[in-house]
Amino acid sequence: xxNVIVRPVCRAAxxxxxxxxxxxxVPALQARGPxxxxxxxxxxxxxxxxxxxxxxxxxxGGPFPYDKDGTVFGNRERLLPSHPRGYYREYTVKxxxxxxxxxxxxxxxxxxxxxxxxxxxxxxHYNSFRKILP
Length: 134
Fold this sequence. Notes:
InterPro entries: N1-like, Ribonuclease/ribotoxin. It contains two helices and six strands. By secondary structure, it is an alpha+beta fold.
């Protein structure tokens, strides 16, 4: 979005011009997607046993059962707080009887990866997240 300098001739005209400029900017901001709001929280004890196992492995630094574990999570859905690319990493939570990686993940952010600042659990493949409380 370009910066526009408005020098009104009178206050009423200036308010009108600023109002029109803001109205034009709103669709562009909405196209980026919703800004994250406070996420629901879940205690570690409330998570499935497979998620607790994955969480412990994250803090140990592995070994992880899937090649994709520990790779950068892009936060394209913009559901997690905004940080530079590379801040978040994703880890698979095993799903019993699943033939593939399933939909459950833990996404953690911070450096180093073995001491993340925050971790989030999703059971629906990034459609929703809950912040994990240790």
